[in-house]
Design brief:
three-stranded mixed sheet; 5 helices; single chain; alpha/beta; 12 strands; nine-stranded mixed sheet; BirA Bifunctional Protein, domain 2
């Protein structure tokens, strides 16, 4: 979401020594505010552990989830890009939040895979543009598994599909919006898998008012419903390759047990 300069990257399997472990947690279908609160608590603990000189081994977290229908507006966004009023949102049962990520307005809903990496980039690399382009690379690699060529835009973040797979010139299949504090990340990506794309008619997605730009989903490109669990596994695999991390799966039923005092 928002503009970004072109960024050339060479991705390879990186030495994982000293980078920390990536804990992957599948939150399932969860209200947006609940997931935001979880992110905030984990982010705070990682920052505090860093400020204290890493008394505990630093971990990274990767939250995967879906949300009930919700619009979120980034700190640099404009409410003019929201096309329906509060009464209409209530009628459609769509929540709305102003949040602290970059970018403009986007939609989250069932069938869309949302990924929230909470990473200490001091242990990986300290480059915001590289981080965003790395998230894009993860999605591009997953799309390649389905013989779909995902592309980057010189003007906008996210992953796009050219017109041989979409009705418009370029269609966005994955939006990206992030927030960093002391090089610890929050927020992340929204990957349209089996998403009901009609919700995007109520906004100007990512504030991009360009008639040659649209949105699409993996299911709309393939003409069939896609196994979301399979996508989660593929995303996790490619994420670890791109960021050079080893992962461990944390059962989702443990999330309510976390005190976030000894992460």
């Amino acid at each position: 979401m928002g503009s970004a300069p072109p960024y050339n990257l060479i991705f390879a399997v990186m030495d994982v020594t000293g980078r920390g472990i990536l804990e992957v947690i599948d939150l399932g279908l969860i209200p947006y505010k609940d997931a935001w609160d979880i992110q905030t608590r984990i982010h705070r603990e990682l920052v505090e552990n860093k400020r204290a000189g890493y008394p505990d081994p630093q971990r990274h977290f990767f939250l995967l989830c879906e949300h009930p229908p919700v619009f979120t507006l980034g700190k640099s966004g404009s409410e003019d890009n929201l096309r329906i009023n509060e009464r209409e949102r209530d009628e459609y049962q769509i929540e709305y939040f102003k949040i602290n990520r970059g970018g403009d307005i986007t939609f989250h809903g069932p069938g869309q895979l949302v990924g929230y990496p909470i990473l200490d980039l001091d242990l990986i690399f300290t480059d915001v543009h590289r981080y965003v382009r790395s998230l894009e690379e993860v999605i591009i690699r997953v799309l390649q598994r389905y013989d779909i060529s995902g592309i980057r835009s010189d003007r906008y973040t996210g992953v796009w599909v050219k017109n041989d797979h979409a009705r418009h010139e370029d269609a966005k299949i994955c939006a990206i919006g992030v927030h960093l504090s002391r090089w610890v990340t929050m927020h992340g990506f929204a990957f349209n898998i089996n998403t009901d794309l009609s919700y995007f008619n109520h906004i100007i997605p990512c504030g991009i008012a360009d008639p040659d730009k649209s949105v699409c989903s993996l299911s709309s490109l393939l003409g069939k419903t896609v196994d979301l669990q399979e996508i989660k596994e593929q995303i996790t695999t490619e994420f670890c390759v791109v960021f050079g991390l080893e992962s461990v799966i944390v059962p989702s039923d443990r999330i309510n047990q976390f005190t976030f005092q000894n992460l």
